Amino acid sequence: MSKLEMVLQCPDEEKHAADAESVRVHGDKVFSCGDDGKVKYVRPKKLEGIGPLPDSDLESVILHGDRVITCSDAGKVKVFDRNLKLIKDLAAHDYAVYDVFVFGDTLFTGSIDTKIKTWDANTFELKKTIESHDEAVRRFCTDGKLIYAGDEKGEVRGYTPEGELSVLYNVVEEVWSMYAKGDLLYTVRDRGITITQLKGEDNKFCHIQSLDGRAPIYANDDWLIFPDTSGLSLDVRENNKTSGFALKGQLKGTEMIVTAASGHGTMVVTGSWDSELRLWDLRTMKETGRCSIPGVPNGIAVGENGDVYAVGVGGFICKLKASA
Fold first, then answer.
1. CA 112, CA 75: separation in Å to the nearest integer?
2. What is d(CA 282, CA 193) in angstroms, rounded to the nearest whole number?
3. 217 near 228, Cβ under 8 Å?
4. Per residue in 66-79, pLDDT tens?
5. pLDDT mean over 35-59
6. Region 281-293: what's the mean pLDDT?
7. Four-CA torsion 71, 74, 76, 80, nearest 10 degrees
8. Which DSSP state fits 246?
9. Cα distance between residue 98 and residue 184, in whole Å
10. Backbone angles phi, psi at 173, to 5 degrees
11. What is the pLDDT of residues 27-38, one digit of tens each?
């Protein structure tokens, strides 16, 4: 049976002497109370395996080879190894960085300052500053050829791996989540997934389908997964235009609104406002494990070996292990 487990925890000498009854996260501290009559608090960075914290919320996390890359509201991009040892602390922008993306040997960063910056993914030297957006850059994705950047004005721009602007699409609503597959582009604000077929020229595309739902999208070649309009269940659909993106089932049981989702193969990991991660098996459409984390997640990254990284409110970053 699959399971999701925390691989790191508070040292024995700092635990309650009797049963712990409740835990809450406030800012960068974790508060707990127990039957020993005590209230304890620790900064999440003191918990073994929870990485150093920035000064602000973390917005996104990605895996690139043996590295974990995060971005924060402090304008920083941080690079860790797989055991969350800090490798690089990069002051990427003066304002919040909403998303990071690696294509080839180039790291893309998108910010509320409306700029995209490209960096050498190995040396982290600045390559280029792109100023073609009018509003905050929210999300990146790729079709394998171009890197697409969606912003709060509702514009999606496609860039070459060298950071040159290639094409512009106006999708009307600000982009909170995005995915590309072949010539199809999937965009969503907080409500309604829109799937369009791109024609490779500025603002030339056709509408394929609209689906009731909300951000975040998690998709791969086979599956298209996103919360329903309530945010409490996730629709699982075939990622196939021919089938009309047929509904295959729902992942039910989340008690609060889903805020982050990722996965690998038939394994999906979601996080919500209850500060828990849930592990799902797409073969059975069932929850197979869950685990509390230090705060509300804004981003999740899942590796093919079952490593799970979650980041979010209060600046926490933690590593979990999902296993079959």
1. 9
2. 21
3. no
4. 999 999 999 999 99
5. 55
6. 96
7. -60
8. -
9. 23
10. -100, 145
11. 445 556 666 555
Q: Residue count of the chain, please give it.
A: 324
Among the listed residues 128, 109, 224, the one whose alpha carbon sits nearest the alpha carbon of residue 178: 224
What local confidence, expressed as pLDDT, does residue 17 receive? Answer: 60
CA distance 194 to 128: 31
Average pLDDT value for residue range 100-126: 97
CB 271 within 8 A of CB 292: no
Question: For 43-96, where are the E strands, in sequence order?
Answer: 58-64, 67-72, 76-81, 86-91
Q: Do the beta carbons of residue 252 and residue 233 sit within 8 Å?
A: yes
224-229-234-236 Cα dihedral, nearest 10 degrees: -30
User: Are the C-beta atoms of 224 and 237 separated by less than 8 Å?
Assistant: yes
Collect all residues with Cβ–Cβ distance below 8 Å to 53 and sequence separation of at least 6. 28, 43, 44, 45, 314, 315, 316, 317
Token pair in block for residue 16: 């309650």
Cα distance between residue 244 and residue 10, in whole Å: 48
